[in-house]
Give the backbone structure.
Amino acid sequence: MKKLKQIKFKKGKWLALIIAFLVTTPLWAQGQTAKGELIFGLPKGEFLMITLITMIVIASVLVLVVAGYVVSLLNIILLKEQREKGLQPEGILTGMWKKWFQKQNFSVPIEREADIMLDHEYDGIHELDNHLPPWWKAMFYGTIAFAVVYLVVFHITGTFPLQEEEFEIKMAAAAKEVEAYKKTQANNIDENNVKFVKDDAAAISGGKQIFIKNCATCHGQKGEGGIGPNLTDEYWLYGGDIKGVFKTVKYGAKNGMQPWEKKMKPEEMQNVSSYILTLQGTKPPNGKAPQGKKLEAKK
């Protein structure tokens, strides 16, 4: 009894450890997900959690298989010993467990094997007319049911997306995330990281609209100059590269140009600055005389 209690205590200890592991693993995985590292398209924490659970399931199945094999082997040995001693063969399993085991395996007791023995034999080997065990048939019918459900929910009703559709959904979601990220980055543009977006037609077009609305009054519709200097020649008062133009637009100039920092978004100032640089060399009519130092625009 003492040994039995020790065995039960050890089993309970291992069960408690397994339950604690399964409970804490998802919490640990959530903490790991925040780092953003992906493995096979999954957050690192989720991937490790799935891997560990899969290993536990595989190990559990192997333990059950080995345990079943050992029980069957011991049962055969015990039955053989009981027959040799002239005892009623019962094996390891008795009573309710024996009935349950026989029911699940559709097995026939050895003493009744003559009832299911087929007529033919070869070299002393007889064949028994055993049925497939219920657990095997249950798994087989389960796979058929799974296939039917899978066919209905994926191919007929479309309740769940197929792999290709799921890929497209995730790509669309990723595109939205990229756009959202770009918007957050657009608000972080300043004179140190501003870029000349000459190859972005939408940005240049937007910059043109901003220029016509806010800048043409002083610089002319085509940048030819008016109250403000000509923006199409090679002469600049405050810098002729994208950073210099952006800084002038953002903070204004001492000649009376107002700062646009509080009236335009950083991305809008980048777009209008880029549009101004595209006006270089266009030579519009009625261009104002050059002002400032001759400086080829650094694009």
In short: The CA atoms of residues 106 and 133 lie 5 Å apart. Strands lie at 38-39, 42-43, 117-122, 125-128, 235-236, 293-294.
